[in-house]
User: Fold these one by one.
Assistant:
Number 1:
Amino acid sequence: NAGVTQTPKFQVLKTGQSMTLQCAQDMNHNSMYWYRQDPGMGLRLIYYSASEGTTDKGEVPNGYNVSRLNKREFSLRLESAAPSQTSVYFCASSERTVTQPQHFGDGTRLSIL
Amino acid sequence: SQQGEEDPQALSIQEGENATMNCSYKTSINNLQWYRQNSGRGLVHLILIRSNEREKHSGRLRVTLDTSKKSSSLLITASRAADTASYFCSDGRGNPGGSYIPTFGRGTSLIVHP
C-alpha cells in the first residue's frame, strides 16, 4: 500500500509564482488535510476536507486554496507565492469518525526566494 | 491555535533508559493521540487514548491521560537508538459536521545515544 503520496517532494519558487501541491491517498479515507510545519511551530492546519465535495479553512488558510478533486485527491494551491510560505507541507488523511488516526505523506519541501 | 503542548522540548538519554514526555491541552477532548516523526519523514501514528481511558499500552509504549489536569504522558521504556525522533501529541475534537479536526503541539525532540 502506498498510503498517502505527495508530489513533488522538493520545489523552489520565486516570489509571485504559483504552484499546486498534489496529494493522493489509496485508503478510501473520507477526510483529508493539509498542514505546514515550520521550525519551532509544530504542525498547523491550513485546510481540510471532511468528505468529498467539502472543504474548510484551518488555522492558517491565508494565501492558499484547495481542491478536493475526488475522494482520493486533495490539492493545495499557492496563487502568488511569498517567502513566508517557505515551509514543509504535509498532507494527511483519516476516516471520518473522530477516533481514527491520521496517515501522513512524507511532505513537500518548498522554498520561496 | 495550538492545543496540545509537549514538554520537554528536547530530551537526551542513553540507550536502555526510559523516556517520558508530557502533553498538556486546554479544552475538552474526545481522544488524544501520539505520533512520531523521524527526520525528513511524515508523522506516524503511535497510540490513541480515549477520554474515558486512563492508561494504554502498546509494546514499549505506555500512555496515560488525566482529564482533570488536561494532560497526558508518553513513556517509552528501554529506549533504543532507533527511537530517536520527534514526538507529537494531538487532540481529537469532533466538529458538528462529524469530522475530526486535530491540532498538534510543537513536539518533543528525543535523542537516544547508543
Number 2:
Amino acid sequence: AQTVTQSQPEMSVQEAETVTLSCTYDTSESDYYLFWYKQPPSRQMILVIRQEAYKQQNATENRFSVNFQKAAKSFSLKISDSQLGDAAMYFCAYRSAMGGGADGLTFGKGTHLIIQP
Amino acid sequence: EAQVTQNPRYLITVTGKKLTVTCSQNMNHEYMSWYRQDPGLGLRQIYYSMNVEVTDKGDVPEGYKVSRKEKRNFPLILESPSPNQTSLYFCASSPHLGATEAFFGQGTRLTVV
C-alpha cells in the first residue's frame, strides 16, 4: 500500500516571501500521479497542481511549482510571493495510474500554512 | 456548471439514528468515492464505485454503506451512526478509473451526539 508523509504540521511565512512544503511518499509502482490540494477555511478541496510520474519536468502553475524527485520519492510544493489568500491546509496526495484496486487518492495528513502580513 | 453536490452541508444527529448523505455529479463520471477527513489524519477513503452497481470498500468502510443505482448519484448511508463517525465527509468523482483528477464536493460536516 502507498503512504504519503507530510512532516510539517504547520508552516508560517511572511507575505510576499517564498515557502516550501514537504511531501514524501512510498510506493512500489512506477506509474502514478501526485497532487497538491489546498483546503481554505471554506473546506473546499481545490487542486493546486499535479505531476505525472513519467514526466521529468516539474509542474508549474503561476506562483506554485513543485520539486519532483522520483528516485527520492519526494514531491515538495513551492509557493512564491506568498499572499494572504494562500493561507490554508495543504494536502499532498498520490494516485496510482495502474487503474486497479481502489484507485483512490492517498493523502498525507496535511500542512497548515499561515501567512503573516 | 460541472460540479459535485453534497447534501446536507451540516448535520447533527443522535447515536443510532439512520442517516444518508447524498452526492450527485453532473459530469457523467464513472468513478465516485467517499472520504472522511479527521484532524491529524488527512482524508481517508471509505468506499468507492467504478460504475453503476459496482462498489467496493476503501480503507475505512466500517459502519458505512453505499449504493450506486444511477451513474450520477452515490449516497453514503450510516445505518447506526456512532460518535466516532463525527467527521467531515467528502464525495469525489473522476471521469474513469485511473483518471488524473478528482472533483470534490463541498463537504458535509457530520456530528453524532
